[in-house]
Amino acid sequence: MTNQDYFAEHAFLPQGWAKNVRIEVRDGLIQRLKTDDSGEGAQRLSGPTLPTLANLHSHAFQRAMAGMAEVSLNPNDSFWSWRDLMYKMVHKLSPDDVRIIATQLYIDMLKAGYTQVAEFNYLHHDPKGQAYNQLNEMGLQLTQAANQAGLGLTLLPVLYSHSGFGGQLPNEGQARFINTSDQYLALHQASQKALAGHELHKIGVCFHSLRAVTKSQIQHVMTELGQSIPIHIHIAEQQKEVQDCVAWSGQRPVQWLANEIGLDENWCLVHATHLDQAEVSAITSSSAVAGLCPTTEANLGDGIFPGVEFMQQGGRWGIGSDSHVSLSIVEELRTLEYSQRLRDRQRNRLYSEQSHHVGDFLFEQARLGGNQASQVSFGLAPGHRADFMVLDHTHPFMAASKSEDILNRWLFACNENLVRHVYVAGKPVISDFNHAAQEQSNKEFTALLRRLF
Questions:
Q1: Is residue 389 a contact partner of residue 49, using CB atoms and an 8 Å limit?
Q2: Backbone angles phi and psi of 427, in degrees to 5
Q3: Which residue of the set 5, 322, 360, 392 is catalytic?
Q4: Using an 8 Å Cβ cutoff, are 337 and 289 in contact?
Q5: Tally: H helices and E strands in the chain
Q6: Which residue from 78, 82, 79, 83 is spatially nearest to 122, judged by alpha carbons?
Q7: Alpha carbon distances (Å) from 180 to 137, 223, 230
Q8: CA-based torsion, 283, 285, 286, 290: positive or negative
Q9: Bridge-partner residues for 322, per DSSP?
Q10: Cβ contacts of residue 116 below 8 Å, gap of 6+?
Q11: DSSP assignment of 74-126, as one string?
Q12: Which candidate in 59, 208, 271, 357 is catalytic?
């Protein structure tokens, strides 16, 4: 682990921007921060310095098909037709293929300013649905990719047993995903052992969706694994899902989960796009996190999250890149804000009485929600992991801006990537926009795409 003092002329602390900040890093953690420091003897950070974010929702393998589903073959194209295309691709992937895709993806995440990824992994078995010799073979490949890239992994092995509400039999396209509850518990145990000793890595519990598991399965797994680790689930992403849930149970998805299972701060409800007012209140009062993936949700035509209402009630949320049609923090946060503006036909929708700068509010909320959902502590504060990024100080908007305008300029005025340097546990992993392993990773990823497509 790194022991080093860093010096930033402008640093975004939990309480806001500060000048001339010394960041003392010991054993990969921030030991102390000192403002109005001289910087003597410290390594200078040449640009506005921000904490990094946790990417709270990723399906790594889907990066390989980004941009390949933008061909209209059906006048009624939807999430469900996109899913059929995804199933066709997933049957072609070997464990080594998944490692290659994930390595490239995780390097690109680091370049964007993400240094932890919550990997929602439901690709478990071979193309015929048979278990690999090592139960967590795919998890091992993802862990190897994270190690090679140098970012933290919150591994979320997924329980996926059924094709529809009420325990419907899985279909052929889902063969690689399917486990019983007991098989899942064995997989989870193997995954825990594999992650032991990796200081950057965490593990959570994951249910694919209410379509894919039963009430008894959720209860059984939670009883066995406890509730002190993150619990993630896809929910209320599509109107059809809501309608099917009501037809099955008489309740909407979030309503059912809150009433039948119960919510607390360990839960991350991924998407949660279609909510009524009672469901908004159920999430916000429980302190669960809404896992928003704005660019994927826009790409799939999911709908618009009720962000204004959710945040007026103090709701917690973070961002993920999900299917990875974008790996830009800027695009995720900008899309979230602009979706609210388009719906409401008003400007500046997401802010608080304490933070009238929309960019500052969005970034800080994404930091807090990502931390909670991924079980990490990011932020320039003592005791937190020393993960931070440095924006390009040569860009005119960065060079000429007052501190309080930096995040608004970055998130709403810039299209090029401004993340110049990235540090994980005090160690540089991106230097001058580059990663040490990117050349080899690019070659392997290019060869894989040519073979797949």
A1: yes
A2: -105, 130
A3: 322
A4: no
A5: 15, 17
A6: 83
A7: 17, 15, 21
A8: positive
A9: 58
A10: 52, 54, 55, 151, 152, 153, 154, 200, 370, 374, 376, 378, 387
A11: -TT--HHHHHHHHHHHHTT--HHHHHHHHHHHHHHHHHHTEEEEEEEE---S-
A12: 271
Give the model's pLDDT for residue 76: 82
Cα–Cα distance, 72 to 76 (Å, whole number) = 9
pLDDT tens digit string along 136-185? Answer: 999 999 999 999 999 999 999 999 999 999 999 999 899 999 999 999 99
User: What is the identity of the amino acid at 244?
Assistant: D
**The overall pTM is greater than 0.85:** yes
Establish whether 271 is a catalytic residue: yes
Please report, as a single letter, which amino acid is at residue 343: R
Amino acid at site 414: C
Residues 313-347: pLDDT tens digits? 999 999 999 999 999 999 999 999 999 999 999 99
| DSSP class per residue in 116-169 | EEEEEE---S-TTSPPPSSTTHHHHHHHHHHHHHT-EEEEEEEE---SSTTTPP
Q: Which of 11, 202, 2, 195 is nearest to 115 (CA)?
A: 202
CA distance 9 to 20: 4
Strand pairing class (231-235; 205-207): parallel
DSSP state of 66: T
Q: Average pLDDT, whole number, for the chain?
A: 96
Query: And the tokens for 406?
Result: 């930096």
Q: Is residue 337 helix, strand or coil?
A: helix
Q: 132, 287, 291, 156: which is closest to 221 by C-alpha? A: 156
Residues composing the chain: 453
- Please name which of 237, 203, 4, 194 lies closest in space to residue 116, comparing C-alpha atoms: 203
- For residue 421, give the amino acid letter: H
Question: Assign residue 97 a region: left if phi > 0, alpha if psi is -120 to 50, beta otherwise?
Answer: alpha
Query: Would residue 244 show up in a list of annotated catalytic residues for this protein?
Result: no
How crowded is residue 4: how many other Cβ atoms within 10 Å of its Cβ?
A: 15
**Mean pLDDT (whole number) for 416-433:** 98
SS (H, E, C) 375-402: CCCCCCCCCCECCEEEECCCCHHHHHCC
d(CA 171, CA 380): 47
